[in-house]
Write a structure and sequence with these properties.
This protein is of the alpha+beta class. Helix content is 23%, strand content 28%. Helix 6 (149-160) crosses helix 7 (169-189).
């Protein structure tokens, strides 16, 4: 299992959430609490939307990936200390069995304006990989650079939205649900009875969509939480998310594990629900209409 963070709100230095929280993503790369294996050292990635305005506006995100452990990469700290963004994704990887540690396999995956991450795994993916590829368009097939289940799911998603850079929120949401249904269908066709955990995160730079899903009812998906409020620094310059504030600069953070020790500020996303954070930062928790679970 991997760990990830999704952020939307007032402009913030990436380091404030990736490094400077009491249970930051860097901390989780060595000491994750809500999974059996605490280490996520098989690479990392960040994707951010530049906070440019006017003639410098750029709708496509920047992406930086490395196969080094996140805790051991000085470039990550340097970059995160200089980049300010209103929206970013960050991911630390624990590679699935038999999958190589390589840059193409690191998240987030990007196409145009879209970023995609996955926490979880499709058990016995190799048995369904061929049927997945068979259902992809030539364009989606050609875009796959690695061999993770996560990137194949992203290819399915891009086909569902027809690679449309201006797809609206409902189209993206419907496509995300269809991807999960397709994966379930492929697994049934190949008689795969094991669990598939699909905590998918996707954004177009304005809205975010994050699922918490598993195909077997008795199995809980990978953990997922969110917090709303404002960011404040304590006396040790650590970042905290405070909910009881009148500030208009509200933020939303979605993470595999709460980023602070004050878990009361964090709400658990229920099994087989999807969070939709729209362009205005409004959060909706949607029961997924999938035939599964």
């Amino acid at each position: 299992m991997c760990r990830f963070v999704c952020y939307k709100g007032a402009p913030v230095l990436l380091k404030d959430l990736i490094f400077n929280t009491s249970h930051s993503l860097i901390d989780q790369s060595k000491y994750a609490k809500k999974r059996n294996e605490p280490v996520n050292g098989d690479g990392f990635g960040i994707g951010w939307y530049p906070d440019f305005q006017g003639e410098f506006y750029d709708p496509e995100p920047g992406v930086f990936k490395s196969i080094e452990p996140a805790w051991n990469n000085r470039n990550l700290l340097n970059i995160a200390s200089k980049i300010r963004s209103r929206m970013f994704f960050a991911h630390i990887r624990d590679a699935s069995a038999d999958l190589p540690v390589s840059q193409p396999n690191c998240h987030p995956f990007q196409y145009g304006k879209y970023l995609w991450m996955h926490n979880g795994w499709l058990c016995e993916f190799e048995q369904m990989r061929r049927i997945t590829l068979k259902h992809l368009s030539d364009k989606a097939f050609s875009g796959i650079q690695g061999n993770t289940d996560s990137e194949h799911a992203f290819a399915l998603f891009l086909d569902e939205i027809k690679f449309d850079q201006e797809a609206d929120d409902q189209t993206i949401l419907d496509a995300l649900f269809k991807v999960i249904d397709k994966i379930h269908y492929f697994r049934i066709k190949k008689n795969i009875m094991s669990n598939a955990e699909m905590n998918f995160a996707v954004t177009n730079g304005e809205s975010m969509f994050i699922t918490r899903f598993s195909t077997i009812i008795k199995c809980q998906p990978a953990s997922l939480f969110y917090a709303q409020g404002v960011l404040e620094k304590d006396e040790h310059e650590m970042t905290e998310i405070v909910s009881n504030s009148t500030s208009s600069e509200k933020v939303v953070v979605v993470a595999s594990e709460p980023l602070s020790h004050c878990e009361a500020n964090w709400q658990k996303v229920e099994r087989n629900f999807c969070l939709h954070i729209d362009k205005n930062g409004e959060v909706k928790s949607i029961k997924m209409p999938s035939v599964v679970g």
